[in-house]
Design goal:
Helices cover about 0% and strands about 50% of the residues. Strands 2, 4, 5, 6, 9, 10 and 11 form a 7-stranded mixed β-sheet that branches. Strands 1-3-8-7 form a 4-stranded antiparallel β-sheet, with no helix packed on it. The N and C termini lie far apart (about 35 Å). The protein has no helices and 11 strands.
Length: about 110
């Protein structure tokens, strides 16, 4: 199993980014996918969990209304659209799934700063 994130970068407050995570090595369409983030000095926290079909997404309260999780099962890819970004959204963002064991991507850095 491999999870490869991309799309991070430096963005000004109020800006937007779209993260992508390409998955391989398992039947992607059968499994929930999640996004987590970890800010410096803080514990890793859940951002969103997207159901296997993509019809249902659960968000952490602080991300509701600003972040949107989605997936394209034909492309084995899960996305995180992040709008109205704040400096406190600065973190490394990780893709995660659990099949017969848990798997993490390598992470992509998102920095929100003016």
């Amino acid at each position: 199993v491999q999870l490869v994130e991309s799309g991070g970068g430096l963005v000004q407050p109020g800006g937007s980014l779209r993260l992508s995570c390409v998955a391989s090595g398992f039947t992607f369409s059968n499994y929930y996918m999640s996004w987590y983030r970890q800010a410096p000095g803080k514990e890793r926290e859940l951002v969103a969990t997207i159901s296997s079909t993509g019809r249902s997404t659960i968000y952490a309260d602080s991300m509701k209304g600003r972040f949107t999780g989605s997936r394209d099962n034909a492309k084995n890819t899960v996305y995180l659209q992040m709008n109205s970004l704040k400096p406190e959204d600065t973190a490394v963002y990780y893709c995660y799934t659990t099949t017969w064991k848990s798997y993490w991507g390598q992470g992509t850095q998102v920095t929100v700063s003016s």
